[in-house]
Amino acid sequence: MVKESNTLHLKRLGIDTHQEAIVYMRRDCHVCRAEGFSAHARVHVVIGATAIVATLNRITGDLLNPGEASLSETAWLRLGATEGDKITVSHARPVDSLSRVRAKVYGQRLSDLGLAEIMGDIVAGRYSDIHLSSFITACSARKLDGDEIVGLARAMIAVGERIDWGTTPIVDKHCVGGLPGNRTTPVIVAIAAACGLTMPKTSSRAITSPAGTADTMETLAPVDLDLASMRRVVEQEGGCIVWGGAVHLSPADDTLIRVERALDLDSEGQLVASVLSKKAAAGSTHLVLDLPIGPTAKVRSAADAASLGYHLLNAAQALGLEARIVRSDGRQPVGRGIGPALEARDVLAVLRGAPAAPTDLKSRAAALAGIILELGGVAAEGKGIDVAESALASGQAWTKFQAICEAQGGMRTPPCSTHRQPILAERTGRIAAIDNRRLAKAAKLAGAPDAKAAGLELHTPLGYEVEKDSPLFTLHAETRGELAYALEYIDNHPTIIDIE
Amino acid sequence: MVKESNTLHLKRLGIDTHQEAIVYMRRDCHVCRAEGFSAHARVHVVIGATAIVATLNRITGDLLNPGEASLSETAWLRLGATEGDKITVSHARPVDSLSRVRAKVYGQRLSDLGLAEIMGDIVAGRYSDIHLSSFITACSARKLDGDEIVGLARAMIAVGERIDWGTTPIVDKHCVGGLPGNRTTPVIVAIAAACGLTMPKTSSRAITSPAGTADTMETLAPVDLDLASMRRVVEQEGGCIVWGGAVHLSPADDTLIRVERALDLDSEGQLVASVLSKKAAAGSTHLVLDLPIGPTAKVRSAADAASLGYHLLNAAQALGLEARIVRSDGRQPVGRGIGPALEARDVLAVLRGAPAAPTDLKSRAAALAGIILELGGVAAEGKGIDVAESALASGQAWTKFQAICEAQGGMRTPPCSTHRQPILAERTGRIAAIDNRRLAKAAKLAGAPDAKAAGLELHTPLGYEVEKDSPLFTLHAETRGELAYALEYIDNHPTIIDIE
After folding, report:
1. A317 with A201: CB under 8 angstroms?
2. Closest approach of chain B CAs to the CA of A215, in angstroms?
3. CB-nearest partner of B60 from A16, A130, A141
């Protein structure tokens, strides 16, 4: 279907559409006419040996001259285009794997082959946002069973790169989110690496939360390392904390996460496949999975934790990973900060052994690190937590963390917010409950995670006695607009923190 | 949140994104920085008293000067913008009704209030394609029950205009598609109006088929009539055949249909609500619903027809419509043409009483028109079909049809295709089965319905005896690319027409 006459020359318009591949062509262009393209058509764009599928936007004015076309910035980068390049445009082939998605919508199981085809088409950019959203929604409405979850994880691994570290064990951890401020990872990596284990940690950016580990870590050091740089850091320091998306370990997952974020949907099956595909692709062999349980955490009940734990262990085994599940208290945020830079300051306080460091963050990190040390064979059963605490107390973990930051490109100081506003207690009493979800939402409205300094600091944990008009938490924002936005939300939801 | 400082001046770039509202702003613009907008953010754009929600695309080059912004053509039209207008931009409010969609995904019922909120947000443009797709998918995966269907239909009616004709009965018909070429509507309207009934027919464009009635009718007369023009036609001629989208009778439906089309999903509940909301909004009081049943029709079995018929009658009653269901044979296409212009020629042949007119189309149209004449009180029970056949034979219906076309803006001659290719029988035998879906897909790949002359002509109905190498059907296309595309599909699916 590629015809020589269907060629146009590229002009860079510089339109940033985020991850959406758009091709801009004149409405009256000979290719549009010859191929019968309408606006919003899905078309196949080729430069040399590289091809993508893009959505057509038609130019009705003189932004482009006859014979010219343009691409959105993401399409420009994916095609490796340069100004004046010749592109060839034709109808996109029908995306056959969409019939697999429709079958799932109507209640049929997704086969391994079907999942492989879907993931292949997603990483090739053949799914529009409409298609991606339908797949995500179908997997939430029609829960994936154990085999589908394994099939999805395998398909996600297959379409990305997979690291072979040439050694074992490779230890790793993951926390099933929903608990604002629970930023144990940087502390755990520092402890594990300080104790001689290899822990090449790849983390996500936030899906529906005010900060992912990658967002927080980015305020302390660069995290957009490619695979070669990550390998260099790990070979030198035994550990790293980088963004998984930059090393393309599970490129399908990054695309799915963007849409899950827009929908605020997070299904059990997607979650298990997302976590384990990243771990397997990262070459991990031993894995600790932290499941915080609480009424407003992601895992709300012991029953939910049992189901999720079952699927995680089942899929881990199928993928050849040795995993252990840890259930923890998820009734309130961890540490004080919520938002990238604010959480980073809690991490630094724990690593430095600051007297005011949040004790909950410290004890959770030490407990998880202890299990990793045992799993990795550098601490005896039941002794891991003691070894972990020693590594913190001695400063070994802090030294190792600084070395890792330097190796990743240089340690940074987290930014400070420019706009702050304390939220005061409406009466005197004891803190009886904290709504993690609404607190997280307030932090997001204040700008987190895109605004790195934004979020909030929680002053009053569960059980704390407060006076009327004393501060419960302080909002941090980088713009007045976002601060006002978070305040409006808090005004409309006065029961985020329940005082009895 | 609307601040005077958040203003920019409009420059028209002329970018046609189909129905997607996009606002283009410089990446370094003061509003982006002050508000903390990232690419793909959902923002609130205001001109005077008119507001829309749009997706942000950021301009990295010099397409816009500092202080300038632009809008996609659809956003430009919806805001009634003119060059140089001052726009104010702020964060879009969170779309609260999305929590209703999420609850549906997880299995909760949609309440009347929830549906009203969702439809309100959809027509206000607050749903991105990702959100629309999730709603459509959720309603397919979690089938709507009877009350949800009525609630959806009511919500769709409430957000559009509703016509009061000041008279009764107002007759109407609808065919639940899936049967290529089944273009009875223009014939039925002509008969009903010729017999003195009022039949203001609003039709859809194709959802997943090669032609909707509006697409076909558009090759014979203008169909983009506004409400005032439609009223004038109906008052003058007693009937019309116009596109429902242009009269804004169910604007939410038009948006949903665009996404259903991209997904190739068509759920029972959406279908019932879509059909009946359009009928109620159009002021119809008496309604005939044609349900063709066949293995590759939209309704595949008697059981499916029973369920759909139940929901249609149940919802019709709740909405105050008198409805009758007709089940018909849906094992093969109707008439010869599939595609807008090709179907229009079949319609003309029936109305003109041409000797070669397709008898199946003629008899189906007469049967349905007969029931409408009885429902509308202008024919005795059991005599409707005779009256209908007389109106055709006498030429009254043909005269009326021409008058309606003239009143709609002038009768047109359907266009002829420029590229044709017969598909030949691979062996001698009898036509045992026809795959409506694949035949429709071939017609779509050939360019229908966007290319009006495209589609195919079927030469061999069920039971027909063919010789090897005689033509089964002829493909019609307006471009070589589309013809080649349909041929490739047919090569890959040799069993579209089964010869035994």
Report:
1. no
2. 15
3. A16
| B171-246+271-407: CATH class | alpha beta
| SS3 label, residue A473 | strand
- The average pLDDT across B325-342 equals 94
B266 labelled catalytic: yes
pLDDT in the model for residue A1: 43
Given an 8 Å threshold on Cβ–Cβ distance, is A16 in contact with B259? no
CATH class of A419-499: alpha beta
Q: Check A262 against B105: CB less than 8 A apart.
A: no
Q: Do A263 and B13 touch (CB under 8 A)?
A: no
Q: What phi and psi, each to the nearest 5 degrees, are found at residue A38?
A: -110, 165
Q: Does B6 have pLDDT greater than 90?
A: no
Chain A nearest-CA distance from B281, in A, is 28
> Which numeric CATH code is attached to B7-91?
2.40.40.20
Q: What percent of chain A has pLDDT over 70?
A: 98
**Chain A residues within an 8 Å CB radius of B15:** 24, 57-60, 63
Chain B interface mutation, best of A58, A93, A133, highest count of B Cβ atoms under 10 Å = A133
pLDDT digits (tens, 9 = 90+) for A408-463: 999 999 999 999 999 999 999 999 999 988 999 899 989 999 899 999 999 999 99
Share of chain B above pLDDT 70, in %: 98
**Amino acid, single-letter form, for residue A189:** V
Q: Do A133 and B138 touch (CB under 8 A)?
A: no
Assess whether pLDDT exceeds 50 at residue B340: yes
- C-alpha distance from B276 to closest chain A C-alpha (Å): 23
Residues of B in contact with A63 (CB under 8 A): 13-15, 63
Q: Which residues of A form the catalytic set?
A: 266
pLDDT at A36: 66
The pLDDT of residue B1 is above 50: no
> How many beta-carbon pairs under 8 angstroms link A with B?
190
Which residues of chain A lie closer than 8 angstroms to B489, CB-CB? 94
pLDDT the model gives residue B20 = 86
> What six digits make up the tokens of A122?
């997603």
Q: What is the pLDDT of residues A397-415, one digit of tens each?
A: 999 999 999 999 999 999 9
d(CA B135, CA B103): 11
**CB atoms near residue B146 (< 10 Å):** 14
Q: Where are the domains of chain B?
A: 7-91, 171-246+271-407, 419-499
Structure tokens at A417: 């917010």
B32/A152: higher pLDDT: A152
Instruction: Please give the Cα distance from A140 to A267 (Å, whole number).
Output: 5
Asked if A133 lies within 8 A of B129 by C-beta distance, the reply is yes
Q: Which residues contact B363 (CB under 8 A, 6 or more apart)?
A: none
**C-alpha torsion sign, points A282, A143, A155, A77:** negative
Contact A72, A22 (CB under 8 A): yes
User: Cα(B17)–Cα(A45) distance, rounded to whole angstroms?
Assistant: 18
Q: Which residue among A14, A105, A265 places its CB closest to the CB of B265? A: A105
Using pLDDT thresholds of 50, 70 and 90, give the confidence band for residue B28: confident
- Percent of chain B predicted with pLDDT > 90: 76
pLDDT given at position B39: 67
Q: Which alpha helices (H) appear in B159-209, and where do they start and end?
A: 185-194
Cα gap B445→A94, rounded to integer Å = 9
Instruction: Tell me the CATH architecture of domain A171-249+260-407.
Output: 3-Layer(aba) Sandwich (3.40)
Nearest-by-Cβ selection for B91 from A134, A136, A481: A481
Whether residue A237 is predicted with pLDDT greater than 60 in this model: the reply is: yes
pLDDT score at B178 = 65
- Nearest CB neighbour to B130, from listed A6, A259, A447: A259
Express each pLDDT in B219-254 by its tens digit: 999 999 998 999 999 999 999 999 987 777 778 988
Domain A98-158, CATH number (from 3.30.300.130, 3.40.50.150, 1.20.970.10, 3.10.180.10): 1.20.970.10
